[in-house]
Write a structure and sequence with these properties.
Helix content is 22%, strand content 38%. The chain is an alpha+beta fold. It has one domain: Peptide deformylase (Peptide Deformylase). The relative contact order is 0.21. This is Peptide deformylase. Keywords: Hydrolase, Iron.
Length: 136
């Protein structure tokens, strides 16, 4: 189901709780809402649609990747950039990293480990910030 985008900064500034198999229904809502906003959005975190759960979805161009309970394992290549967010107006300066490695569970709750670089790494980091209640 397509959900409305949350813009309440008080809600967005709260840390998210771990995803469990009981929360699996959220995955479809994330996929539907990202698809409905694809013209202006390349990633989304659970709290952006009202779920304080550790789930993100990232558009890789050819496919959307769902990451449950992601953990940043490594980062390198710091740089400054400006980002916007569907939940906020305007853009803000932020530090990101060119190369990252993340451990997470996929939509079937199987453990995965992936490396990302460039723009995809930036999107993943932005969405992971949401899970920590960090607003850019």
């Amino acid at each position: 189901m397509v959900k409305q985008i949350v813009r309440d900064q008080m809600f967005l500034s709260q840390k998210s709780s771990p995803m469990t198999t009981m929360d699996a229904g959220i995955i479809a809502d994330m996929q539907d809402t990202l698809a409905a906003n694809q013209a202006r959005c390349v990633g989304m975190a659970g709290n952006m649609i009202g779920y304080k759960k550790r789930i993100i979805i990232v558009s890789m161009g050819f496919a959307n990747v769902v990451m449950l309970n992601p953990v940043l394992l490594s980062k390198s290549g710091a740089y400054e950039t400006e980002e916007g967010c569907l939940s906020l107006d305007g853009t803000r300066k932020v530090t990101r990293y060119r190369d990252i490695e993340v451990e997470f569970q996929d939509a079937s709750f199987a453990k995965k480990r992936m490396k990302f670089n460039g723009y995809i790494a930036q999107i993943v980091l932005h969405e992971m910030d949401h899970l920590e209640g960090r607003i850019i």
